Every structure is written in structure tokens, then in C-alpha cells.
Amino acid sequence: MVRGSAFMLKELPAASSLPARTMSKAKSGGADDASAHPRATRSDKGSSEAFDIWLQQGLHKLYDSVAKEPVPDELLKLIEQDLAERNK
Amino acid sequence: MDGTIAQARTKLRGEAGEFHKQLVALVPKLRIQALALTRNRAAAEDLVQDAVANALAAQESFTPGTNFAAWMHRILRNRFISTLRKQRETTDIEDLPSSAFAVGAAHEDRMVLKELSKALGRLPSDQREALFMVVLQGMSYEEVAEATGCAVGTAKSRVFRARRQLQVWLAGEERSASSLPKPDERTGRRPGVQQLGA
């Protein structure tokens, strides 16, 4: 699972801005791996922050195009029709 | 008398125009909220249309000068709760934004986005909604709380839990999700947490 996720973090182009330390940690799952520590550490926080940045970029990649779609004509007509009726 | 009526009409026309302008401007954000709730493009479009119709019918109940976006997000949310909640399990990959998976993106990039999208689909709808509001729409926790009718602490918690749950699923950072259900002692797996690549 860690290996698979490392692949994901590595392969997402936006993730190139992730801190190299976090990337190598995720990739190796080595001694610095957060899961190896009994309590939260500074590296946990860094790892979470790096993931949050990655997540933000991924969400924008997925949904920005949806947000930029024009308002459907049907919906515009509904709103304009209501406005016209109120202006009578 | 006639002058007073004319003035009232002019005022109403101005307010109505402003209301409708705000409504049109908010449609993209409503669409994202609807998609967060329904995870289905067609259902999301229907939900936005229904919410807009409800808002137009109830516009006299909106107080000019108050938070229009929060008022609209609440209407859409209530509409979802009353009519679509039972249908939200119909999600599949085809419902996701196709443009994100289309030409231009490398194969690995598409795979990653699909994994992210699938994981998003497994989040509770209220967590996904709060996450989208904060991350995609730049709303503050106070605004999310007002738009979704919950306490600010609840809004923060929803976003936090969504982020950490996604981290567990996608990056294997199990310890970061300390507030999540404890793993099963026999299998070592957390209830409801599917192991990627297993």
C-alpha cells in the first residue's frame, strides 16, 4: 500500500513541488516513516502538510474544469424569466 | 401616490436584479457543492436547478445584505437531504469529471486522479462537501459552518477527518488518522478502510 501510494505521490505532476524529504519517506517507508513512531512528530506534521498540498492540487485538477463550465441555458432562462416577471 | 409606487417598483427591480446576478454568479460553486453531495453529474445538475428554483420562489425570505452564498448553499443542501440522499450510492467512475481524465494528461496522471476520485467517493458526503468548500472554493470554516448549518468546530472536524482519511487511503499514513476507528485486532485493518493495491 505504501509502495502504491508512493507511486501516486511521485507520479502526480503537481506533486513535484512536494518536499523531497516527504517524497523519499513515502517512497522508502523507512525508519523515518510516521507509522513507525508511537507518537506524533514534526515529520508527521510535515507529511500531512505535504499531503494536503498534493490533495489541493489533485482536487483542482479534477474539478476546476467543472467549475468553469458555463451556466446552462435552461438555468439562465429560469432565472431571467423570474426576473422579467418581477419587473412587470 | 403614483410616484411612491413607481419608486417602490424601481427599488424592487434593483433588488431583484441584484439577487438574480448573485444567483448566476454562484452557480459554479453550487455545481461543485452538488457534485460533492451527489457524486453524480446528472443528479448534480438537477440538484442545482431545483435549488435555484427553490431560491427564486423563496427570494422574499432572503434579507439583502446578509450572506447570500451561505443562504444558497443551505437551500441546495436541504434540497439534497430531502430528495437525493437515497440516490447518492449510485456513484461510479463515469460520473466523475471526464475532462480531468481526457487528453493531455499522462496515463499515470489519469490513474492517480482516478484513485483520488474513487477515494473521495468513499468519504461521507458531509465531509466531502466541507472539504470541497474549503479546498476548492476557499471558504473559511465560519462560512462552511454557516452554509451547512453546523458549528464551526464541526466544520473544522469534517475537513480534518476528510483529509486524514484520504491520507490513510492514498498515502498509507495510518498514524495520522488517530481519530479514525481502531484497526481490527485480527486483520490489522481499520473498519471501512480499504487497502489500496491489496
| β-strand number of chain B | 0
**Low-confidence spans of chain B:** 8-13, 175-198
What structural class results from the helix and strand content of chain B? Answer: mainly alpha
> How many distinct beta strands of chain A?
0
State the end-to-end CA separation of chain B.
77 Å
Q: Major sheet of chain B: size, sense and barrel closure? A: none
Low-pLDDT ranges of chain A: 1-8, 10-38
Q: What structural category characterises the helix and strand content of chain A?
A: mainly alpha
| Number of helices in the DSSP assignment of chain A | 4
Tertiary shape of chain A: rod-shaped
Second CATH tier, the architecture of the largest domain in chain B: Orthogonal Bundle
The level of helicity of chain B is 55-70%
What is the beta-strand fraction of chain A? under 5%
**Domain count of chain B:** 2
Protein model, in words:
- The complex is a heterodimer of chains A (88) and B (198).
- With 88 residues, chain A is mainly α.
- In chain A, 68% of the residues lie in helices and 0% in strands.
- Chain A has helices spanning 2-11, 20-28, 42-67, 73-87.
- Chain A starts with a helix and ends with a helix.
- Chain B folds into two domains: 1-88, RNA polymerase sigma factor, region 2, helix turn helix motif (Rna Polymerase Sigma Factor, Chain: A); 106-178, Arc Repressor Mutant, subunit A (Orthogonal Bundle), CATH 1.10.10.
- Mean pLDDT of chain B is 79; it is low at 8-13 and 175-198.
- With 198 residues, chain B is an all-alpha fold.
- Helices cover 63% and strands 0% of the residues of chain B.
- Chains A and B meet through α1, α3 and α4 of A and α1, α2, α4, α5 and α7 of B.
